[in-house]
Design a protein that fits this description.
Number of helices: 17
Radius of gyration: 29 Å
Low-confidence stretches: 1-5, 250-254, 256-261, 387-393
Strand order of the largest sheet: 3-4-5-6-2-1-7
Mean pLDDT: 84
Strand content: 15-25%
Helix content: 40-55%
Largest sheet: 7 strands, mixed
Oligomer: single chain
Number of strands: 13
Length: 464
């Protein structure tokens, strides 16, 4: 392994979030051959408590030299191999906040442990055979999940629902490779290969890879979510739309134009998809320096968003200001939201519809009356092709790294088929088949490089 992940020695880290005056419990995790000795040095368990694996002891953490009391705590003992890392692991369950866990961690470092690198506990679990790479990535996804559906998909990965089909595909490729190599080594003693059967088997493997690749879009949506910017002229109802959608009063709503001077953010979950909604300042020409800053931030938010909701005021009609904003954002994925529809007659609605550009989705809303929100959500999901995503296997959602490896495996299998059709020697068949086996092995970690491990585990938090 690289120096970043030198997995020797005993490591320690704070395993819970450290927030001032928040949280009732803070945990310091220690893993390695000296974990038990370190715990016995720092922790005093009164009475006749038994220091056995998978027991929780009550007691006090003291400075080993001065015997100064640091915290009243619990000690959790997990001896190898029945632990997260398959090493001896102890956890000091201290009082929450900042000082207790920081002092306990410092005592651990002063008495033989070193500070864990990001993801090193999970890396050790992988290297010791406790987890494969898909399960390790599932842990990271679970910690970072932004919706219940994202959490469920992460749990599926953690339970091996992705690793199992990948291993089966790799095993099938290995079987084919064994058949080919047997003919190379013992050609005179075995019947010739059935080219048609080999191609058929490869096609089945490629079809399963294609099915797994179809979950990539869903995986990206669940992990990163959507960023949606609400833009428009001042006083068209952008803040009312945000409040109605989020069912809260995140944004100030008044009859005065230009009330919103900055970008107001709200986090929503729409049918399992995390959505970050940005209510922006009204876009218009202004001499007010503060409002100018807000307008510029609105433009930047629109350009950075995955989707733009251009909101117009139905009672004011399609104005020159609306047209100017439309020209600025029409290159983005866009939905036209015709708000305040409750303030106009049917004839006025028809006139307005004829004035608005026809090339984009249109949704009528009355945000102040909480009308049209459901239709807006449906339009958003259709625009980002969530229907197609939801048609994929709901238990699986591959990430970019896994998708890249699956794509490489599929390309290699296609090259094997081309080699067979061209009737090239058997040695040529094995080259690309080995490439497919290598790519599939990279997904689960059966074949993996240090650089891949560095990239994966460096994204973890310190104590995980």
């Amino acid at each position: 392994m690289s120096e970043v992940f030198a997995t020797t020695g005993t490591i320690a880290a704070i395993a819970t979030a450290v927030v001032p005056q928040q949280g009732s419990v803070g945990i310091v995790r220690v893993s390695g051959s000296e974990a038990m000795a370190l715990a016995q040095t720092l922790f005093h368990a009164p009475g006749r408590q038994v220091w056995e694996s998978h027991r929780i002891l009550y007691g006090y953490i003291r400075h080993p030299q001065t015997q100064q009391l640091v915290d009243e705590a619990l000690l959790l003992i997990m001896k190898a191999p029945r632990s997260y890392t398959r090493e001896d692991v102890v956890e000091f369950h201290c009082h929450g906040g900042i000082m207790a866990v920081q002092q306990v961690l410092q005592l651990c470092l002063e008495n033989g442990a070193r500070l864990a690198q990001p993801g090193e506990f999970t890396l050790r679990a992988f290297l010791n055979g406790r987890l494969d790479l898909t399960q390790a990535e599932g842990i990271a996804d679970l910690v970072g999940a932004k919706s219940p559906q994202a959490a469920q998909t992460a749990l599926a990965g953690l339970q091996g629902k992705l690793a199992h089909p990948i291993r089966q595909l790799r095993a099938n490729c290995l079987d084919i490779l064994a058949e080919i190599e047997a003919r190379i080594d013992f050609e005179e003693d075995l019947p010739p290969l059935d080219d048609t059967a080999i191609i058929s088997e490869i096609e089945k493997i490629a079809a399963e890879i294609t099915r797994l690749l179809a979950t990539k879009d869903k995986g990206e949506l669940l992990r990163t979510g959507l960023k949606v910017a609400i833009v428009g002229r001042p006083n068209v109802g952008k803040s009312s739309l945000l409040n109605a959608w989020s069912r809260s009063d995140r944004a100030i709503v008044t009859d005065l134009p230009g009330t919103t001077r900055d970008v107001v953010e709200s986090q929503l979950v729409v049918r399992g998809i995390p959505v970050q909604v940005l209510d922006t300042a009204g876009i218009r020409e202004t001499t007010d320096q503060v409002e100018k800053i807000g307008v510029e931030r609105s433009r930047r938010a629109a350009n950075a968003a995955d989707l733009v909701l251009l909101t117009i005021d139905a009672s004011a009609g399609w104005t020159e200001g609306d047209r100017e904003i439309y020209e600025q954002v029409q290159h983005r994925p866009l939905i036209l939201v015709i708000n305040k529809i409750d303030l106009v007659e049917e004839s006025e609605r028809k006139t307005l519809q004829s004035q608005i550009p026809n090339s984009k989705s249109k949704i009528a809303t009355a945000a102040a009356q909480n009308q049209g929100i459901d239709a807006l959500e449906v339009a958003i999901l259709e625009l980002v092709k969530v229907e197609k995503v939801q048609a994929a296997d709901m238990d699986l959602a591959i990430n970019q790294r896994q998708a890249a490896a699956l794509t490489q495996a599929k390309i290699s299998l296609e090259q094997v088929q081309a080699t067979i059709v061209q009737q090239l020697p058997l040695d040529f068949w094995t080259i690309d088949l080995r490439g497919a086996i290598q790519a599939l092995g990279e997904i689960t970690g059966e074949e993996v490089t240090e650089s891949v491990l560095d990239r994966i585990f460096s994204k973890f938090c310190i104590g995980k």
